[in-house]
Amino acid sequence: MAAVRIDPAGALRGTLRVPPDKSLTHRALLLGAVSDGPVRVARPLESADTAATLGAIQSCAVRVDGDLGDEIVIHGVGLRGLRASGRIDCGNSGTLMRLIMGILVGQRSGTVVLDGDASLSRRPMARVADPLRAAGAAISTAPGGLPPVEVTAGMPLAGTVHDLPVASAQVKSAALLAGLFAEGETVVSEPAPSRDHTERMLAAAGVSLTGEGLTRRLTGPVDGIQLPDLEVPGDFSSAAPFLAAGALIPGSEITLQGVNLNPARAGLLEVMRRMGADVEVASPRRVAGEPCGDIVVRGGAELVAASVEAQEVPSLIDELPLVALLGAHAQGVTVVTGAAELRVKETDRIATTSAALEGIGLRLAGRPDGFTVEGPGTITGGRVDAAGDHRLAMLGAVAALASGTGVAVEDFACVAVSYPGFARDLATLGAAA
Ligand code: S3P
C-alpha cells in the first residue's frame, strides 16, 4: 500500500464545511428506501461507506435519482416493499450490515447474504443476529458469529425485550427497526447512551417511540413510514481531526461550519474542554432534527490529562484515537476505560492506535478496555500505518501536521471510507498531503 508523506504545516487557519454526516446518510438511505413515497435528501455524504448503502438499496429494487454529494431522491417502496435476493456487498460498513439486517427480517420474502471486505468479515454480527432471532427472525452467520450473514425474510416477528450488553447504536437501531414489523411492544435498553439518530429519524417519519433514560419502546406492527425531506448536517467525526490539529498547533484558528452537535456524538468537545483546549460553539441551530452549530478551535493552550469512562465512551467512540494523541501532548496521565468496543471497530483500535503512536515516538499502554497515555511528549516524525482504517489515516495526518519533521502515512487512501476530500480540505487550511 502506498505511503503518503505529510509535512508539518505550521499554524492552520481558515473556515471549513466538513462533509455530511455518515451515520445520518446511511439512515436516510435505508429509511428513505422503505418510506411510502419519495424522499429528497440534500447533501448525502459521498464516500465508500455510503456508496455501499446506496448500492444495497438499489439492489433491493429501490430507484434513486441524483448523486451522493449533491442531492438525491429516494423513491421509497414502503416498509415491506424491498425486493431483496442474492448477495449484498456491505464493503467496509458495519453500520450498513447491522442496520439492514433489522429491515430485511421484516420483508415479505427472499433470502439475502450480507458480506463485506476483510475488515468487516472479522467484525461481530451475533450481537445483532441474536436479538433479532429472539424476536423470531431467521438469520445465520458464519462460525463465531462473523459475516457472511444470511437473512431469510417472511418469518413472523414478535415484540421482544432486549437488554443489550453493549452500548452500540448499530445494535440498538437494528433491534428497533425489526420492532417496526413485530407484533406487540419492542423494548430496547442499553448500558450507556449511544447515538440516537435512528430514534430521531423514526420519530420524524411518524413512528411513535416512547421510553426514557436508556430505554426505548415501540409498538408494532407499523403500517408505513414517511421520512420527510432533509438536509444532512456536517459530520462531527470528520470535524474531529481538525479540532485535534487546531488544538495541537500553536497559532491555529479553524472554524468548522454546520457540524452535527448531537450530545451522543460530540463527546470529544467536552473532553477537549476538560483538557484545557480552546474550543467554542457558535450559531447553534437545528438541521434534520439534530442540534448543529459552528465550532471554533484555537491552538496553543497548554493541555492537561483527562479521564474518560464507560458512560461517556459512546459519545466519542470514533474519536478515541485522537484522544490518545491529545493525551500524549497533555501534562499528566490520560486514562480511557470502558472502551472495549474499540477492539471490534474497523481495526482493533487499541492495537492500531498503540502501533501508530509508537511509530511516531510516543507510547500508549493498552488495557483490555482502553488505554493509558502519559504526556507531554513531542512528535519528531516517523511512520503511521492506517491499516485500512479511515480513522487511523486521519490520526496519522494530524500527527504529521503537529510533528517536527513530518510523518509517512501508509495506506492513507482508506480515508475515502468516510472522507474522500480530506487531503483537499487540509490544503485549504494551509497543509499539504
Ligand atoms: C455508528 C455507530 C458506532 C460508530 C460507527 C457508526 C452508527 O458504532 O462507531 O462508526 O452509525 O450507528 P456502535 O454504535 O456499534 O459502537
Instruction: Give the strand line-up of the largest sheet.
Output: 2-15-17-16
Under CATH, the topology of the largest domain can be stated as UDP-n-acetylglucosamine1-carboxyvinyl-transferase, Chain
**CATH level-two architecture of the largest domain:** Alpha-beta prism
The profile of the biggest β sheet is: 4 strands, mixed
In terms of quaternary structure, the protein is single chain
Fraction of residues in helix: 25-40%
Q: Which residue ranges are poorly predicted, with pLDDT under 50 across at least 5 consecutive positions?
A: none
The CATH homologous superfamily of the largest domain = Enolpyruvate transferase domain
What distinguishing features does this structure have?
2 domains; binds shikimate-3-phosphate; 433 residues; 23 strands; alpha/beta; single chain; globular; UDP-n-acetylglucosamine1-carboxyvinyl-transferase, Chain; 28% helix; four-stranded mixed sheet; 12 helices; 27% strand
Overall description:
Helices cover 28% and strands 27% of the residues. It has 433 residues and is α/β, with parallel strands linked by helices. A four-stranded mixed sheet has the order 2-15-17-16. It has a four-stranded mixed sheet with strand order 4-5-3-14, covered by helices on one side. Strands 6-7-9-8 form a four-stranded mixed sheet. Helix 3 links the parallel strand 6 and strand 7. Helix 1 packs parallel to helix 2, helix 7 runs parallel beside helix 9 and helix 7 packs parallel to helix 11. The protein is globular and about 60 Å long. The structure holds shikimate-3-phosphate. Shikimate-3-phosphate binds next to helix 1 and helix 5.
